[in-house]
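Reopening this one. Same input as before:
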Amino acid sequence: MNDLAPLLTPEGRALLDAVRGTAPADELAVATRLRRDHPAPLVSAALAQARLRQRAVAKFGTEDADRMFFTPDGVEQSTRASVAAYRAARLKELGVTSVADLCCGIGGDAIALARAGIRVLAVDRDPATAATARANADALGLAGLIEVREADVAEVDTSGHDAVFVDPARRGGRGRIFDPEAYSPPLSWAVAAARTARVAALKIAPGVPHEAVPADAEAEWISDHGDVKEAVLWFGTAPGTVRATLLPGPRTLRGAGLPDPPVRPLGRYLYEPDGAVIRAHLVADVAAELDGGLLDATIAYVTADTLRPTPYATAYEITDQLTFNVKKLKALLRERGVGVLTVKKRGSAVEPEELRRKVKPQGPHAATVFLTRVAGAPTMLIGAPAAV
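Same output, byte for byte:
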């Protein structure tokens, strides 16, 4: 699977076309048929690549995924195309014309940078990964802007480039790595490399502790359709700034350094801030925009008396507030004929599926239940998305 060379031959490409879209249940029959005329290892490699391409559609879209090449780790760790395109556009706006993309992986970010008209040196020390990045640059017609180099990033001279982008590996043999100094390369090395360039961007896990953010960096948390994807440390932009950026859009909320919002009683509306806003610790900024407060000092739900449109939070109109009691909730939902039940939780140990099984919703209507705390007390709030 790691040797792409056979798949890049005319026979290999023909096989990739032949197995495109093969369902898992049909793989055995397809493999048996194709092995009559092609080497078994090549057929297996083509089918494995077809599976990876199907998984990659969620990140790269069908058009690109069907032309690109992937490794299992590459599919898992690569940047979603929409996020990579946003970052490339921001670098372009900063006047960047060339980037040293360190730890380039299969080339997802390099592709976005090249499509923005930026020249890229893409570096990865793993031979199979570098070969995959090179194949992807060729497959998408971007080889003229992307130079792929198999090398240790610590030994690469980046001085000839306007900017540095580093995407350290955050997975190891035991899964996800949470300690930034356990990244490969460590965050401290990436920060040092960033400081050598006019502009730099370091991709890190969204759960990075805020105290790990260097004072001379700008920290940005990015979500796509409400799903938090990553955090980025920017150098050479706005030191000390904290941002939450929501895609599509983009829409960016810049922190104003506000104190924690006040705790207040439940109003008519409950606002659920976007995950990027929460990770960036900008709930206070959203609360100020909504003239709202918190239900609990430790819970990132904002409540307000009026309905105001904001891209940074989803609004719900609350109809009921109950102390936590499954029997009362079940009776209320049955009385209102609620069969479509959305369960959200923040600050509760109860799992949504567990609650859904216990209340057994039935009926034509829909409702949203929030399992949370109000002034420290376990509480259930019932409502529905508000029409803004």
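So the earlier flakiness isn't reproducible anymore. For the record, The chain has a mean pLDDT of 94.
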